[in-house]
Write a structure and sequence with these properties.
heterodimer; A: about 210 residues; D-Maltodextrin-Binding Protein, domain 2; 2 domains; six-stranded mixed sheet; five-stranded mixed sheet; B: about 400 residues; BirA Bifunctional Protein, domain 2; nine-stranded mixed sheet; about 20% strand
Chain lengths: ~210, ~400
Amino acid sequence: MKPLKIALTKGRLEKDAITMFDKMGLDTAALKEKGRRLILPVSQYEAVLAKAADVITYIEHGVCDIGIVGKDTILEYPGGYYELLDLGIGKCRFALAGPKGVDFYGGYSSKTIATKYPHVAERFFSKKGMDVRIIKIEGSVELAPLLKLADAIVDIVETGKTLYENGLEIIEDVEPISARVIVNMASLKMRKSEIEDFVARLDEAKLC
Amino acid sequence: MSEYIYKTPDGTRDFLFEECESHNRIKILLANLYENRGYHEAITPILENYDLFNLESASLTQEEMYKLTDRSGHLLVLRPDITMPIARLASTRLKDAALPLRLYYNQKVFRVNPSLKGKRNEINQSGIELIGASGVLSDLEVITTALNALCKCGIDDLTIEIGHAGIFKKLTESLPADESVKERIRGYIESKSYSSLEDELSDLPESDSVKALRYLPRLFGVREIIKTARDLCGNLINEELDYLNQLLDCLEAEYGDKVRLDLGIVHRNNYYTGMVFRGYIKGSGQTVVSGGRYDKLLSEFGKDWPAIGFAINIDAIAENQRNFKLTNSIQQKCFLVFAEKGYEMKALKYMDNEISNGTICQILPFDNTKSALEIAKVRNAYKFAVVGKEINVISVD
């Protein structure tokens, strides 16, 4: 039997995942000394390091079985996979933010929203029944309202410090975010006991 | 010149050699299997009226369909599904036929998937529809046909999961929530998003249904889950559980643990009413078989006929098999025939004669023996005939 492949989102989630793997009693030595390798053995499993959106792609196609990825990415790239567990790490939220003191909902003009997450923004406003213009921005979304390209932004907020320093404030929370465990649909059915065992142990090793 | 002339449209591809061969082989195997079980082939148009897929039972979204218009401006689609066209066909051309109707198909369906995700927009499907029959026997017939179909393709590591569309319907019937909330709940159950489901349900007053819905996505696996479900759901879904238990009794005896349960199968397709099932095979990340009972669909066409069917994704199976054991035969050795000037018809007749003896032959369209000999080496020919006044057969080695 081939080892289960576990795709980890590189960066902070990867570090938290390693801490959890340690708590589960897995051998994470290779993962800690990874050098530039991208596929590493972790006890009887294989860890794969990838960018968040790619974790989803690998899981959807079934080339990896289990993935650890943020809810932000899941919301932006919905698809055919199971989302089995909320790990409670990497907590933050999507929020709508705009220039301080401006009434975003006031006036009759249609609003322009800048965001890195167009799907999330679109869903949020369509639930409100608001017709807005959405512009995709790749980085430092805070710039868009400052440069008057947009009325507000939808972005990930952790502490709100960046917003504050740029004269923006939160108008409304959109959705909470935390890291999730996703699983390929066929894998869960074909290798049920192995995957359930792994997910249950991961659940027990949760950091909070 | 357009850069597009060199590529196929998004989500489509060309097939060659062993790919065609494995597709065809699977199609023929399955057609034989269906025909031996009394099914007849139906071929429906690639183009259908958009209205057909806009019926309440169909639940594909507009964006998922390729749309075009006919001359009078009617909206058409490239068929995204075969069950709806078969239902149309059965209720019109076969409206007076003796029931049950047994139809099978081997056709392409078209879906617009998000681009650059590596998904196929053109999918080869093979499946059956058994129309005008209900009850355990016909459900078993269709499930075993699906199981045998996969086995016939040489797959032995497979899992078929059965569930029941009535479970979700019953559990949400009395829920004090509007359709959009129910649809979100359905989505969370389908994707087994335990935590999102929990959040959504926590807004509703606690009841037996809510309690059961919360556990529904976890209820998959072997027979024990029926007991768990009974403990959780009170008497709400006893009828469905009894029925699944009965199916499992029959199937387990023959197929062992290849048949499992998933009470959390909640198809987006509104047309399913009873038992539903899905199949998975080792080495493929996708669902390769999907089917179930749709007793209300035909009533949209004015026929009160129960029906059940399934579709197999031929592409997934062909690809999977190529990964495991390469089919062996495209490099077949062939016999090449070269014609000297003035002896063209003689060469063609000679080739026909060889073919009727069971040899694979190819004509070499060259005007000199030297380039003919060169190509003979490339093509892996074992014999090479020069047809002139006389016929010289040369071995190539």
